[in-house]
């Protein structure tokens, strides 16, 4: 699944700072892990969102940011 970053955080497992607008690919399990750990810091904050999960053609129409620029 593709995931968009909404609020900056440091991804300890990948050793990278994820910035708002970044889009990355991960498994559903990894998405749930990230979401659970970030809720520890701010339970009301939305840190990440699913952009494309492979089942919704509408999700793929959202623009993505190129992380390499």
Please, could you describe this protein's structure?
The protein starts with a strand and ends in a 17-residue tail after the last strand. It is globular and about 30 Å long. The chain is 17% helix and 26% strand. The chain contains one helix and five strands, in the order ββββαβ. It is an alpha+beta fold and 69 residues long. Strands 4-1-5 form a three-stranded antiparallel sheet, with helices on one face. The chain has one helix at residues 28-39; strands spanning 2-5, 9-11, 16-18, 23-25, 48-52.
Q: Report the mean per-residue pLDDT as an integer.
A: 85
Q: Count of DSSP helices?
A: 1
Biggest sheet, open or closed, and with what strands and sense? Answer: 3 strands, antiparallel
Number of strands: 5
**Which H/E pattern describes the elements?**
EEEEHE
Please give the radius of gyration in angstroms. Answer: 12 Å
The assigned structural class equals alpha+beta
Give helix % range: 10-25%
What is the 3D form? Answer: globular
- Strand % is 25-35%
